[in-house]
Amino acid sequence: MTQLSAPPQPPPPPPRSTANTSSRRLLIWGAGGVVGVLVVLAGFLLFGGGGSEETESSGSSGTATGPLVVSSTYTTVEDAPLDDRPGEWTNGLVVHPTSVVTVYNAPSGKPIAQVEPKQFGDTWLPVIDQADGWFRVLLPSKPNGSTGWLRDQNLEQAVTPYRIQVHLGSKTLELFRNGESIGKWTVGIGKPSAPTPTGRTFILGAFTDDDQKYSPVILPLGTHSPTLDSYGGGPGTVAIHTGPTDEVYGTESSDGCIRVPPDALKKLTEVPLGTIVLIDER
C-alpha cells in the first residue's frame, strides 16, 4: 500500500426475518453500481483527518445521556453491539437514510449514534437482522463488526444481487451475482504487522484520487486495520484497490488493503454500495 493524501472529514450533519416485512419497498439495483456515485476526493484507504461530529439525539425511544456521535469511518461508537454472525451471508437487503437517523443498541433501546445520508456518496448499509419496525445494520465506525438498530422510517430500501468473498489464506477474492460466481482473482493482502481484518463488512463508498496513478477507483470498506490505530493521521480504513505493480498480487505486503488486478476492480465498480464483503482466514 502506498500512502496517499487523505480526503477531508465529511461535513457535519441473508438477514433473519423476525417480523412481517410486507411493507418493505424493495428495489433491484442495476449494473451501474458504484460508478454512478463516485466522489472525487484526494485520498486513500487509510484516511487522514479525524475527530467526530456530535449531534443531539433525535430519537424517541430510550434515553440519550448526551450528544450522539455520527457513525462514520472516522468515529468510534463505544456502545455498539458487535456482529454475532460474522461469517453469514445476508439476502442483499440494504438501506439508505434519507435524513439523519438515530442508531439504537436494540429495538426501542438506547440511542448510541446517528447516521447521515452521505459519506462517500449516499450511505447504504447492509441489513443483517430485522424485528417489527426495525432493521439491524452493519455500521462503518469502529470497533470492527459494530452494528446498530434503525427504525424503518426515513429509509430507502434496495436489494443488491452481489456478494464478495475474500479468503486470506488462499489470497483470493471471488465475486458472486445472484449466488453464481462471476469472477475469481488472486489478490494482495495485509502484511503480518498490519493484517487485513476478518469478518463481515461492506462496500462503504467509492472515490478517485488524482495523486496516485495505479488505481482508477478506490473502494473503502466499513472495516479498519486491527493494528494501525492511525495511518497518515487517519483512522485506518481498509479499502479495495489495484496495486502499484503486478508483483503484489498473491503477497502479504499491504497495510491491510485488498489489492486486486485491474480486471477485478472493473467488475467491482459495478457492485452497489452496501454490498456484503465476507473476509475469512481460509
Describe this structure in words.
Helices cover 2% and strands 33% of the residues. A five-stranded antiparallel sheet has the order 11-10-9-4-12, with no helix packed on it. Strands 15-14-13-23-17 form a five-stranded mixed sheet, with helices on one face. The longest helix has 7 residues. A hairpin with an 8-residue loop joins strand 10 and strand 11. The chain contains one helix and 23 strands. The chain starts with 38 loop residues before the first strand and ends with a strand. The chain folds into two domains: 108 residues, Roll (SH3 type barrels), CATH 2.30.30; 119 residues, L,D-transpeptidase catalytic domain-like, CATH 2.40.440. The radius of gyration is 18 Å and the shape is globular. With 282 residues, the protein is mainly beta. The N terminus is likely disordered.
Helix-strand blueprint:
Layout: E1 39-40, E2 54-55, E3 68-69, E4 93-97, E5 101-104, E6 111-115, E7 118-119, E8 121-122, E9 125-131, E10 134-138, E11 147-151, E12 155-159, E13 162-167, E14 172-177, E15 180-186, E16 189-190, E17 199-202, E18 207-208, E19 219-224, E20 237-241, E21 252-254, E22 258-259, H1 262-268, E23 276-280
Parallel strand pairs: 1-18, 13-23, 16-21, 20-22
Antiparallel strand pairs: 2-3, 4-9, 4-12, 5-6, 7-8, 9-10, 10-11, 13-14, 14-15, 17-23, 19-20
CATH superfamily descriptor of the largest domain = L,D-transpeptidase catalytic domain-like
Percentage of residues in helical conformation: under 10%
- CATH domain class of the largest domain: Mainly Beta
Q: The CATH topology of the largest domain, please?
A: L,D-transpeptidase catalytic domain-like
Q: Helix and strand succession?
A: EEEEEEEEEEEEEEEEEEEEEEHE
The CATH architecture designation of the largest domain is: Beta Barrel
Structural class given helices, strands, pairing?
mainly beta
Number of strands: 23
Mean pLDDT metric: 82
* Count of DSSP H/I helices: 1
Largest beta sheet: what is the strand line-up? 11-10-9-4-12
- How much strand content do the residues show? 25-35%
Low-confidence sequence ranges: 1-32, 35-61
Total number of domains: 2
The N- and C-terminal alpha carbons lie at a distance of 22 Å
**Biggest β-sheet strands, sense, barrel:** 5 strands, antiparallel
Q: Could you tell me the radius of gyration in angstroms?
A: 18 Å
The outline comes out as globular
